[in-house]
Specification:
By secondary structure, the protein is mostly beta strands. The chain contains three helices and 15 strands.
C-alpha cells in the first residue's frame, strides 16, 4: 500500500480560517524535522525538512503547537517551535509570535480513528530544539554497543532531533568509556549529553 493511499484512508479534512496565505507565510526549519501526515506524532511521517530549508506555512491549529507546512514539495504537520520567520528584520520562532506574525488558524478533523492524542501530555514531551546544538560523530565502537544493547523504547511527544531536551524522568544507559549516554526514544536510538540532557546524535 502506498503512502498516498494511507493518507487517503486517514480522511483528513483541513480548513484555513484566513484563506490561502501561503505566499506570505515563508518560514525556515530550525532543525531537521519530521513532517507528519496529521497534527500529532502518532500520524505517519511523510517526509523530512532539513535544517535551514524553506517552508511555506498554511497556518496552525488554535491552542495547539501543530502547524501545517509545505516544504520541498512535501505537505504536512510540524511543531511551531521548529519554525522561524522574519519579523521586521528579526528572526523569531513561530510558536512565540503567532499572533504578531498573523499566522492563520487552521482546523483538522479526521474521518478515521487514529489512536493517541494530537498533542503529548505536559511533561511527556521533548523540549527544544536549541539554536545551535552540539553535534557529534560517534565512533564505530559506540554504534556497535547501541546495536547490541537495544534496551526498551521511551515514548515521548515531539520530534526526535539533535538539540531537543529529554525530560528529567527518562533514564539514560551508560556506554563504556564514552562521555555521552544512550536511550531509545520512539524506537529511534539517540545519544544524549547527560549534563544538559540534550540529544547530540540520532541514529537513522
Amino acid at each position: 500500500m502506498t503512502l498516498k493511499r494511507n493518507l487517503f484512508l486517514a480522511g483528513a479534512i483541513v480548513a484555513a480560517s484566513a484563506g490561502l496565505a501561503r505566499a506570505e507565510m515563508a518560514a525556515t526549519a530550525v532543525n531537521d524535522l519530521t513532517i507528519h501526515a496529521g497534527p500529532g506524532t502518532q500520524y505517519p511521517s511523510v517526509g523530512v525538512a532539513p535544517r535551514g530549508s524553506e517552508a511555506y506555512l498554511d497556518g496552525c491549529v488554535e491552542d495547539s503547537r501543530w502547524c501545517r507546512i509545505d516544504a520541498n514539495g512535501v505537505r504536512g504537520w510540524v511543531y511551531a517551535e521548529y519554525l522561524q520567520m522574519d519579523q521586521g528584520g528579526e528572526t523569531v520562532i513561530v510558536q512565540d509570535h503567532r499572533a504578531d506574525l498573523g499566522v492563520p488558524v487552521v482546523t483538522y478533523e479526521t474521518t478515521a480513528s487514529v489512536p493517541g492524542p494530537a498533542d503529548p501530555a505536559p511533561g511527556d514531551e521533548l523540549i527544544g530544539p536549541v539554536g545551535s546544538p552540539e553535534t557529534i560523530a560517534p565512533p564505530e565502537t559506540v554504534t556497535t554497543y547501541v546495536q547490541t544493547n537495544p534496551g526498551e523504547t521511551v515514548r515521548l511527544g515531539g520530534d526526535v532531533v539533535v538539540g531537543a531536551q529529554v525530560p528529567g524522568d527518562v533514564t539514560f544507559q551508560e556506554i563504556p568509556d564514552y562521555q555521552y549516554r544512550y536511550v531509545r526514544i520512539n524506537d529511534r536510538p539517540v545519544l544524549v549529553d547527560p549534563g544538559s540532557r540534550r540529544i547530540v546524535y540520532v541514529y537513522q
